[in-house]
Amino acid sequence: MNRYPLWKYLIVLAAVLIGVLYTLPNLYGESPAVQIAGAKTAVKVDQGTLSRAEQALDQAGLNPTAGSFEMNGPVGTVRLRFDSTDTQLKAKDQLEKVLNPDPQNPDYTIALNLMSASPNWLTALGAHPMYLGLDLRGGVHFLLQVDMQGALTSRYDSMAGEARTILRDAKLKVEDVERNQQSVRATFATQEDRDAAIDTLRRAMPEMVFTTGQSGDQWLVDGTLSPASITQVQDNALKQNIQTLHNRINELGVAEPVIQQQGGDRIVVQLPGVQDVAKAKDILGRTATLEIHMVDDSPTAMAALASGRVPFGLVRYTDRDGRPLLLRRQVILTGENLQDAQPGRDQQTQQPTVNLTLDSKGARIFRDVTRDNIGKRMAIVLFENGKGEVVTAPVIRSEIPGGQVQISGSMNAQEAADVALLLRAGSLAAPMHIIEERTIGPSLGAANIKQGFDSTLYGFTAIAIFIILYYHLFGVFSTLGLSFNVLLLLAVLSMLQATLTLPGIAAIALTLGMAIDANVLINERIREELRAGLPPQQAIHLGFDRAWATIFDSNLTSLIVGVALLAFGTGPVRGFAVVHCIGILTSMFSSVVGVRALANLWYGRQRKLKSISIGQVWKPKQD
Predict the structure, then answer these.
(1) CB neighbours of 104 closer than 8 A, spacing ≥ 6?
(2) What is the pLDDT of residues 185-216, one digit of tens each?
(3) pTM higher than the cut 0.90
């Protein structure tokens, strides 16, 4: 009656072993570390970077206790762990000297960090500690202000080029089209030309509001974005900046950063565990944009380039090999028009290519530009930290319609993949600046951990003492089941790599109370069966079975609330809900399966069982 088959005991044993294995990394703490990431999207970090860093440290007599190379999506990072912060700082200085010989133009981001001190055998098994939130681990909190005027300026620059193309396709006479502060201004020689153009512009650009005017002998059309279009531009800029920040935070190796919108033009960034605040500010404030220009390879331009002069209307850049190029100042397309970039191969020549996908507006502009510039070169320029670099400058072979662009040239498959990653990495749609900065030291985080741990430990101890005194041996079973529940909860959180915060610790304490409630229901139900005169073995069996329905109903209602918090909550509320929901599931398993396994193991083989240790069973008085 009260005997589990062997497979059920094996399931419980496996759960205990998994719980111990995946909870163990949380007990080892963290060690100081140095992380290496690419400071430019064109710089790769791979296994060779790890070898180069270890060799540089070995020459300086600095030996890391562990080193690893990891791929975080398309971005590689190298992490080196040390036994002390003194060695960590010396290693950072040595790596800066070797890997970044030009401090003004660094190739790598070398940041201080913290790594788990778990043994290598645990890490090899995939057992990692939980992430700790900003309130427990310390770190830095930034509030960034997005320059929405800058986003609008970029948008008007793009629309000026689009208006120029529309008027040229319509064969309308126009003297000039340019951005005039926060508007697009077209200048005409006669009123008839202006009136004909304004109808065409209104049909082709419905998101703009056009007005007419006159300045001396010039007839003007000024176009401004409608309020709805301005809102859309600003929303898109905010979303693109948040996505780009996610990509950049990978360089710091921050576990579970918080990057979210606040209001209409601000972004909150929380970086738990970051020690190098200056490096974090540098990476977050980095500006990067993608632009497409036409290359001027005319004899006049080449002669000027050879003599070191830059003619009016052109600008000098260098490609990735350091060769100079003269580009026209007019921006044809920006990264705003690029939807995707993937490496591939030409179907005819099998040469490596980069395949671009443009949005509808970009496809239309690109079609017109390629039709009018066959045989000429087009340059894709990436601007980072205020410096522009030509990623590639292919020759236009034919008109390219449909927005599907194939770039080919003298590059191998790896270089094609690198260029695709470079173009896909994204850029800030609008400049940002930090308006608020708060740093939470590791000591404050450690104090929060200690207070949260102590409160949970004292609550567990008080519950254990009461339950053992009141239910005797079954109280011991309940206490062991409670320990099993905490073990499983921490193991699941570690396996999911969840972020633990102070609200999460509060949820663990709440889980203890809810888990012991299930054990109280089971124990009282067994007592009721004993009062009814049933033998102990039958009382144990019916007690567990009949308490299950009540346990399920009570936990289900709590789970519904937890799921609601998980679905609609944010920040600390969501963190609480994650631990709360997982805790409900682990408490049901530990109380119903784990505790029953202990009771069956202890009493199940005693055929002539006369009594059980479950405290005082008060029998009702007989009248």
Answers:
(1) none
(2) 888 888 888 888 888 888 888 888 888 888 87
(3) no
